[in-house]
Amino acid sequence: MKLLTLEVSEIEKLVDSYEQEVKSLKENILKMCWFMRGGLNYNQAMQLDKNERDTINKIIDENLETTKKTHLPFF
After folding, report:
1. Distance from C-alpha of 11 to C-alpha of 37, rounded to nearest angstrom
2. Could you read off the pLDDT of 33-62 as tens digits, one per residue?
3. CA 64 – CA 8 distance, rounded (Å)
4. Which residue has the higher pLDDT, 1 or 53?
5. Other CB atoms closer than 10 Å to residue 50's CB: what's the count?
6. What is the dihedral of CA 63, 51, 30, 68, to 10 degrees?
7. Pair 40, 60: CB distance under 8 Å
8. Measured distance CA(25)–CA(46) in Å, rounded
9. Would you list the domain boundaries of the chain?
10. Which of 56, 12, 6 is nearest to 36 (CA)?
11. What element of type H or E holds 52?
12. Whole-angstrom Cα distance, residue 60 to residue 68?
């Protein structure tokens, strides 16, 4: 059995990168919930897989672009 070992500084960097990834994911999910205007709540969004989140974000981006092009109101 091979043990994986890391220096303390490497562990700290790894933990920091995980914390940043979690922060980014939560921020993305909260923005998604805001754009969905209640159509998707935080708990539901947290259960989505990456492909589902990416698809929803793509739809949001497309709708924002359409709104800009057509000068429709956006709140």
Report:
1. 39
2. 999 988 999 999 999 999 999 999 999 999
3. 45
4. 53
5. 8
6. -10
7. no
8. 9
9. 14-70
10. 56
11. helix 50-70
12. 12
